[in-house]
Amino acid sequence: MQSMEHVPRMVAEPATIDGGNPEAARWRERDLAVLWHPCTQMREHPHALPLVPIARGEGAWLVGHDGRRYLDAVGSWWTNLFGHAEPRIAAAIAKQAGTLEQVLLAGFGHEPAIELAEKLLAIAPKQAGREPPAKVFYADNGSAGVEVALKMAFHFFRNLGEERRSKFVALENGYHGETIGALSVGDIPLYRRTYAPLLAEALFAPSPDAYAARGGESAEQCAGRAADALAALFDRHPGEICALIVEPLVQCAGGMRMHHPAYLRRARQLCDANGAFLIADEIATGFGRTGTMFAFEQAGAMPDLMCVSKGLTGGFLPLAAVLATQQVYDAFLDDSRERAFLHSHSYTGNPLACAAALASLRIFESDGILERNRATAAKMARLADAFRGHPHVADVRQTGMIVAFELTRDGNRATPFPAEARVGLRAYRAALARGVVLRPLGDVLYWMPPYCIDDAQLALLAETTRAAIDEATACA
Ligand code: PMP
Questions:
Q1: What's the gap in Å between 6 CA and the centre of ligand 1?
Q2: Domain total for the chain?
């Protein structure tokens, strides 16, 4: 699910993080005998790239088979919200498993799917003067949710007889998943190069990424410049664009690149002016990561279609949902099956996953999570501030519960490390050896911890990040 442009071969490195503990070694051997891990050059396991067999999770910790504890500073690929094995979510899943574990959602419905849809519609971003979201379509992972939204937008216009409206606009440096449709609107260079012949054509607009701001330009001005380019793109394709898809506020897999909310407001206006849909991919940014329940809220705007997944179940089970307006839904109503939305996954709206999501949403309310996160985010800001001016840190940025550090040779944007130096990977290994999971995106280190992270863990995180940066950059 995450890009890792670790292309060049790595020199052989220390044996294992756990010092060859026999129990861990046995699991590693069995693992490598049968598993093909995601997004991994398997040749690098287990020496250049550690392979850590995990026995269990406890709060913000992952615990290895050797008994070592690893602070999960990346929330297990941004899925985990309240810590591992959160007992209330675990109990809700267990209860549901004893009642109804799965039923096909075509021709049948069930309480957790209905109740979750009601809750999601209630908490979704709203915008004065716009029709609120009214329907929920489930899928079973983030990429599948993106496929649903893309097909839904395309099919909507087809049902209206607007056959020319079949193009998607996506943002440079964006990421929306790894199925072929989702990859087609993604712009991670390694993936685009590798799978180019398979991809559907999409139009790409410049990213509003504030890290790319020109000298003297504010984040807002940078967003304005990107929005002007988007406007020009719409002008070049009148009546052809069915939707714009964006990761609101943070392009996560693209290196935690952040932008000003003004971009989303302009994007909303431009989509309206050009009769196109706005699809918000809140798969990574949703459920409190950016400081609000959904990132789009910070723009005071709402999308036509919103995709959520990852944190939806608190990080327990795969589930995705696409929220649509009544207007979208109504365009599919007819006597013909061809006009009906043609999409189904076997586990669509799985009751266990819906029960986990409901339990997760209850925790947001009972524990006042968004408010608590404001305090945690302020602490993260203070700790991150200490990295400003570091000789190898070109940028420290934060949106809510996401903090990122851009590592470069001379601490400025003009001097990225050469890819062969594999600074990110070196930092990853250095942090892991110190008991912190800081899986970088290229040379960007980031914090996206479970919300239960406490002060001592935050201090460990900051201290380890510094040590990892120092170690990784010393030999680059
Ligand atoms: N969209 C975004 C913004 C994501 O970050 C991701 C996953 N990193 C996806 C879509 C795809 O989700 P999944 O990995 O569940 O397919």
A1: 19
A2: 2
